[in-house]
Amino acid sequence: MVAGEKADVVVVGAGPAGCTAAEHAARNGATVILLERRKEVGVPVRCGEFMPQLDEVRKIFPQAEDVSSLFDVPADLRSMEMDRIRIYSPHLRHFEIPFQGYTTDRDRFDQHLARKAEKAGARLITGARVTGLEASSVLLGEERVEAKVVIGADGPLSVIAKSLQLERSWDLCPAMAAFAKGDFEPVPEMYFGSISPGGYAWVIPKKDGANVGLGVSRLYAKGKLLDYYHFFIASRKLSPGPASGKMVPMSGPISKTVSGNALVVGDAAGHVMPVSGGGVPIAIICGRIAGEVAADAAQGRRPLMDYEQEWRRQVGAPLATAMRTKRIAMLAFGSQWRLEWAMRLLGPRRMGKAIRCRSVLP
User: Fold this and answer.
1) Which of 86, 88, 333 is nearest to 191 (CA)?
2) Predicted model pTM
3) What are phi and psi of 296, to 5 degrees?
């Protein structure tokens, strides 16, 4: 039970953004309650589980501070190391993009972050379904928790953001993924074109199989997500297990992430790379900023609005560049021929720039 409890900072959502925010708020001297609606952190897994290596994170977000301490990932959470990504055009022409990364087990990865938050002093409560925010009270049905500062890290359909009347991503893309057992080449594959309109399909290898899935943009998809998914796995002759779905915000950060005594971070704030849908590194970087500023604000040391300024300083420019690239790509998404032509024109070097949130022009 949490009824009537109070804390300096209440974090809603125990994904990478929420766990990191809770950890650093606690480290910064705040009393912290971390609320997670699922009974087990990280379960079920709803992503491809691909992570960039530390050097790639530095390349993508050169203004982010002290990333080495944020991404000190234990060896047992690294399933398979990779040095390139293979991208397929609509006509199945492939491009090899040098990129250093690894796959992980997201359930165990998120649980690792939750343990770090608890070790720092945050109190984790699972099975806590937040229904809204009222002034300084986080609502859980008839119960409520009082907070000086609230951090909404509760995903793209954020209850906290809705309560604050903050905008939602205008391009919420449905995606689904599953795990297929087998032996796969240690190269992540991304498929573009009509197989996944406005998005891409993927095969991301791990030690004992691969994550397979796809995401589509509702701006371009004419069919159902499940139909695209079944067609893709049939075309690759895969037999994955049960699939899980999610929504991915693909329109860049929302314009305002702070309101009153609350802020949003991670998917709730649109902290996702618009060209790839990758969000874990940004969530962790912005989660630390959110936690530190929230703790300071709760203790009267600085205004909560510093969070908005600081995350934009550290990751805002690359995300804005990636959004410009996405807008250019949207001109080609509606036509197989245009997309094929555009990908051949870009070639591996410029595609590598796009993946790293850098300008592809010239």
Assistant:
1) 88
2) 0.96
3) -65, -45
Number of domains making up the chain: 1
| 3-class secondary structure, 145 | strand
pLDDT value, residue 334: 87
Range of the domain at 159: 6-355
pLDDT digits 0-9 by tens, 27-65? 999 999 999 999 999 999 888 899 999 999 999 999 999
What pLDDT is stored for residue 335 in this prediction? 92
Strand partners, 264: 152
Give 117's Cβ-side CA count (13 Å radius).
37
Of 280, 271, 221, the C-alpha closest to 250 is 271
Sign of CA dihedral 227, 245, 57, 259: positive
Write the single-letter amino acid at 198: G
In a domain, 235, yes or no: yes
d(CA 281, CA 228): 28
Asked if residue 141 is part of any domain, the answer here is yes
> Is 306 inside a domain boundary?
yes
CATH number reported for the structural domain that contains residue 77 in this entry: 3.50.50.60
Q: Is residue 286 part of a domain?
A: yes
Beta strands in the chain (DSSP E): 6-12, 32-36, 50-52, 80-88, 94-103, 123-126, 132-134, 137-140, 143-152, 172-181, 189-191, 200-206, 209-215, 244-249, 258-259, 262-264
